[in-house]
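Re: [ENG-882] Designed sequences occasionally contain unexpected residues at chain ends

Forwarding the minimal case from QA. Structure tokens:
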């Protein structure tokens, strides 16, 4: 089955909640989620999947307990994301993790 193109700007226009990922595509075991970000998110880690972020608009700072900043994370790394003015991103990871 062919995949249809997705206009992420149109998808972002349909919601305004921050830190509430919306699934826009799933390919094999991988989900692509759109997220509006603003302020600080809670410290957390995903035990079952790695995660990648593509920041589309704005800036995001990621704090690690170890003090380093990297764009992709092993499944067990605890971290807290933070954003000043509102930004948008695409979050990519495997499976049904929220």
């Amino acid at each position: 089955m062919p995949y249809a193109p997705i206009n992420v700007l149109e998808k972002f226009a349909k919601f305004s909640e921050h830190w509430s990922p919306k699934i826009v595509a799933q390919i094999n075991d991988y989900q692509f989620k759109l997220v509006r970000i603003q302020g600080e998110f809670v410290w957390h880690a995903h035990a079952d999947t790695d995660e990648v972020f593509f920041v589309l608009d704005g800036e995001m700072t990621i704090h690690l307990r170890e003090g380093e900043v990297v764009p992709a994370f092993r499944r067990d790394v605890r971290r807290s994301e933070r954003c000043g003015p509102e930004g948008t991103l695409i979050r990519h990871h495997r499976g049904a993790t929220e």
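QA comment: On inspection the terminal residues look reasonable. Residues 8-12 form the longest helix (5 residues). Proposing we downgrade this to a documentation issue.
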